[in-house]
Write a structure and sequence with these properties.
With 332 residues, this protein is an alpha/beta fold. The protein folds into 2 domains: 200 residues, Alpha-Beta Complex (Quinone Oxidoreductase, Chain A, domain 1); 126 residues, 3-Layer(aba) Sandwich (Rossmann fold). Strands 3, 4, 5, 8, 9, 16 and 17 form a 7-stranded mixed beta sheet that branches. It has a 6-stranded parallel beta sheet with strand order 12-11-10-13-14-15. Helix 3 packs across helix 4 and helix 3 crosses helix 8. The longest helix has 20 residues. It catalyses: a secondary alcohol + NAD(+) = a ketone + NADH + H(+); a primary alcohol + NAD(+) = an aldehyde + NADH + H(+).
């Protein structure tokens, strides 16, 4: 089978990212073998490739927005059969016994593992996943549309929860890529007013098409004070204008796994009035189930740009340069 490995992370001139041919993996105890039909290209994959995240598995195969068909069952697997359509997301394993897992916060488990970082992911024709972390998928979507739901969608959904958006509230979204364009639709379906702030003119057009009340440049002020905001762009300098745009008691949720340095805050301008900042760390399986059920009940428009598996390097370069419309998806 064909797959991509991050042999040496780094800048575009220093990194080594190779397309290889290797045997199909054998599923271990409790695992599924999945024939990949689509894999989303996430900004987290870019952080793995560029070395923004520390190496967890040398020569890892990235990709954690995987849609495919069960092609084999490891020993001890129940509840799945060959031919089942399944999804593989970022969270791959937790200990199940620590205080976080017991409290329903498995995303904070100190022993958690992740697809495409701790274990090989979906930039491949086949991959494996623990059956306990595989997801049933809603109908009514093509495989390429489902792939971004498995991280961009789930993380956007959790970020929306973390932002404490009140009923029919005013939400600001900073950055408008794969995750943001899905979170915006969830918020709109729940009755929110959405204002989008992003540097991409094409993304601003998409935001308005999807129902945003306004769409401005990333550093602009929205036309009204915000009850909540979500920062999807990995740009720490946007924390300040996002906080300044919040009304009293407002909440900013930062959705990325990596963020550039945040400039010095001015207490009166950015935090006073009980404004607050919350981070988002991965997701729980409950988040995934709830979001996928929501996506099944409210058909979301998933905007994708397709790339063949052999052009994964180009897809990541385009993502880094903001040349991707919606979500990039690899189609083996």
């Amino acid at each position: 089978m064909r797959l991509w490995r991050v042999v040496r992370p780094g800048t575009p001139s220093a990194r080594k990212f190779e397309l290889r041919s290797e045997p199909v993996p054998v599923p271990g105890r409790g695992e599924l073998l999945v024939r990949v039909s689509a894999c989303g290209v996430c900004r987290t994959d870019l952080h793995v490739l560029e070395g923004d995240l520390p190496v967890h598995r040398p020569n890892v195969v990235p990709g954690h927005e995987v849609v495919g068909e069960v092609a084999g069952l490891g020993p001890g697997v129940t509840g799945f059969a060959e031919g089942d359509r399944v999804g593989i997301a970022w969270l791959r394993g937790t200990c199940g016994t620590c205080r976080y897992c017991r409290a329903g916060a498995e995303n904070l488990c100190p022993h958690s593992t992740y697809t495409g970082w701790d274990a090989d992911g979906g930039y491949a024709e086949y991959t494996t996943v623990p059956a306990a972390y595989a997801h049933r998928l809603p109908g009514g979507y093509r495989d390429a549309e489902l792939a971004p739901l498995l991280c961009a969608g789930i993380i956007g959904y959790r970020a929306l929860r973390r932002a404490w958006l009140p009923a029919h509230g005013r939400l600001g979204i900073y950055g408008f890529g794969a995750s943001a364009h899905l979170a915006a639709q969830v918020a709109l379906a729940q009755g929110a007013t959405v204002h989008v702030l992003t540097r991409s003119a094409e993304a601003r057009e998409l935001a308005l098409e999807l129902g945003a009340a306004s769409a401005g440049h990333a550093a602009d002020a929205p036309p009204e004070p915000l009850d909540s905001a979500i920062l999807f762009a990995p740009a720490g300098e946007l924390v300040l204008p996002a906080l300044a745009a919040l009304d009293r008691g407002g909440t900013l949720a930062i959705a990325g796994i990596h963020l550039t340095d945040i400039p010095v805050l001015n207490y009166q301008e950015h935090l006073f009035g009980e404004r607050q900042v919350r981070s988002v760390t991965a997701n729980t399986r409950e988040d995934a189930r709830d979001f996928l059920a929501f996506a099944g009940e409210h058909h979301l428009r998933v905007v994708t740009t397709a790339y063949p598996l052999a052009e994964a390097d180009k897809a990541l370069d385009d993502l880094a340069a903001d040349r991707v419309h919606g979500a990039a998806v690899l189609t083996p």
